[in-house]
Amino acid sequence: MRVEEAHAAAAAAAAAAAADTAALLYDCPFCADSWEQAAAAAAVAAAAIQREQQAAAAAKFLADHYSAASFYSFPLEEIYQQQNYGWLRQQQQQQQQQQQQQRQQQQQQPQVPLWLLQQHERQVPMQAGVTETEEIRAEAAAEAAAEAVAEAAAEAAAEAAAEAAAEQTAEAAAERAEEIEAEAAAEAAAEAAAEAAVAAEEAVEEAEAAAEAATKAAADAAAQAQAQAAAQVQAQAAAEAAAEAAAERAAEAAAAAAAAAYEDSYKWGDKSKQQTNRRLLQAPGSIEQQQQQQQQAAAAAAAAAAANAVAQVHLNTVNMLQEQQQQKTAAAAAAAAAAGFPHILIGVVLDDGSIWGIDDLRGGRRAARQQQQQQQQQRLLLQQQQQQNNLLPEP
User: Fold this and answer.
1) What is the per-residue pLDDT across 145-169, written as a single tens digit (0 to 9) for each?
2) What is the rounded distance in angstroms from the CA atom of residue 134 to the CA atom of residue 30?
3) Spacing of C-alpha 56 from chain mean position
4) Contact at 8 Å (CB) between 59 and 3?
5) What are the CA-CA distances from residue 210 to residues 201, 202, 217, 221, 223 (Å)?
6) HEC secondary structure over 25-54
7) 349, containing H or E segment
8) Is 128 left (phi over 0), alpha (psi -120 to 50) or beta?
9) Residue 275 exposure: Cα atoms within 13 Å on the Cβ side
10) Structure confidence by residue, pLDDT tens digits, 218-250
């Protein structure tokens, strides 16, 4: 409690000195000029006394509720300023009320001119060392001191209020700026999100349109491929049927011609041989009959040779057609393999109008049938040649 005791002692000494000075100046009738200073000193002393009393009360409160260590570490200056600000505000309010009352009284009472006061001062005798003029001057000095204190307090309060208002305004402006920045950032983020959503929707729409176009193109291509495949299959089937029918007709015609030639040669050979034997038996030494037999045998051999030539020409023609078809098939298979889709195509129409398909690539039934027909024709021709050779007369 040393701090508050020191404050209280200093305040008491200042108040006593101010009171003594005021008393001396007040008793002196010729010290009217210094009376205002004394009044101001007295007012300052009274304010100091009140501040010291408030500080002492605050220190006592802290001492009662806090320990010694916390007491010395507590911000006394801040408490003092707060108490002083409250006291100044109270003093300002009281002074304003007093000023209003004085103004009302002055308005109600008539104003006394200065010359009248001076004359009254000379005429009125001294009463206990104090004249009415001194009282008036003392009151004026007190009012001036009060006004000065009020002005100082008002200025301090105005400065404090201005500082507080400026701080609040700055804080509010900073908060508003932060809010504006946050709102701008949120708006920018929302706009970016909206733009991204629109771009995503456009991309999805484009992808869907592309997928639909691709699906439609694939469906059209598949339908076209199926139609082409069906047409090619039909054309291939028709060509195969026509080729098979032509081959069968040619084979049947060749077989019939060969059989007829064989039968004719066989019958003619048997008949000529019988006639020759008969003639030899009848006229063994006839030269003319031998010549006729030789001519007939030569004619039979020529007919057999002609039949063999016709059969060989037909056989060569069939072989050539088969070789051409095999070459076309091989070329088409190579082209399909190079294109990379031999497993998709069903039939292809070549430049010359022929058709090849899966059966041709795999060496299907058509090639097998043609090979069987060729082998049968070759065996038939060989048999005919052997029979004709057997029918020829011995030299």
Assistant:
1) 667 766 776 677 677 777 777 787 7
2) 9
3) 71
4) yes
5) 14, 12, 10, 16, 19
6) HHHCCCCCCCHHHHHHHHHHHHHHHHHHHH
7) strand 347-349
8) left
9) 14
10) 778 777 767 776 666 676 666 666 666 665 666
